[in-house]
Amino acid sequence: MNGRLEGKAALVTGSGSGIGRATALLFAREGARVIVSDVNASGAEETVAAIQKKGGEARFIRCDVSKSAEVEALIRGAVETFGRLDCAVNNAGISGVMGPTGDYPEDAWDRVIATNLTGVWLCMKQEIQQMLKQGGGSIANTASVAGLVGFTMAPAYTAAKHGVVGLTKTAALEYAKANIRINAVCPGLVRTPMITDTTSKNPQIEQALIADEPVGRMADPEEIAEALVWLCSGASSFITGAALPVDGGVVAR
Ligand code: NAD
């Protein structure tokens, strides 16, 4: 254990799978006590078990981030469990269906915005209240390269992720003097169920996606977790309001 987050109390939403799970595991490895939160209880319990197996401390609190009352209960539960909240990673998200802007279904738009944008804001709202009470903290949001550049056929996802980047910058300015740092990570293509649920059924899609990647491969979720943990640690103490691409060069193109 390196102990970069020794003694810290952390929360990771969407940590029942993919990037969130890898982040919760890395937080625990670095010495943090971790609240694992997700709508998917079985995935989250697997994450908790994996942390405990390695001697770490973790507890599952179920929460749908798009529901204000559930988010309030999540933050209350996190603070009751570990006494405070030093680090929060707002990561829960969905991809939504693909379709062009002029023909995108309204219910699909509402679902993506509710989870990927409103969900991040609802979590930040409660986390900030707690961090103000305790005199500081660090928040890292999982945005996307789709929060920095446009992606065809994904209007709701792209709008939500641009929204997360804007919200990150605004809140970072509002709370900079209150010792709360707020940043976003913008991953490129990451090998998680969000992608592999499609690519495993169609290797041609996977090949096409990879062919488009400057580094010629997808990221592993652990590579995104490293950035999220770093942004929550003291090692990034002068960084706030940043939207950090972790994308193998995609937005450099
Ligand atoms: P994933 O599907 O493996 O994990 C997402 C997790 O979020 C799941 O466990 C899911 O149950 C949970 N979740 C979904 N809706 C929720 C809700 N309303 N409340 C609480 N939890 C909810 O996908 P992932 O790739 O690990 O995605 C994590 C984040 O990374 C997302 O915000 C996603 O948009 C972002 N991202 C992913 C990629 C990629 O290529 N995989 C790229 C850029 C950004």
Q: Averaging pLDDT over every residue, what do you get? A: 97
Strand content: 15-25%
CATH architecture heading: 3-Layer(aba) Sandwich
CATH fold label? Rossmann fold
DSSP helix fraction: 40-55%
Alpha-beta classification? alpha/beta
The order of strands across the largest sheet is 3-2-1-4-5-6-7
Per CATH, the superfamily is NAD(P)-binding Rossmann-like Domain
pLDDT < 50 runs, ≥5 residues: none
- The protein's oligomeric status is single chain
Rounded radius of gyration (Å): 17 Å
Report the major sheet.
7 strands, parallel
Order of helices and strands: EHEHEHEHEHEHHHE
User: Helix segment count?
Assistant: 8
Bound molecules: nicotinamide-adenine-dinucleotide
InterPro entries: NAD(P)-bd_dom_sf (IPR036291), Sc_DH/Rdtase_CS (IPR020904), SDR_fam (IPR002347)
Protein name: Short chain dehydrogenase
Family: Belongs to the short-chain dehydrogenases/reductases (SDR) family.
GO molecular function: oxidoreductase activity
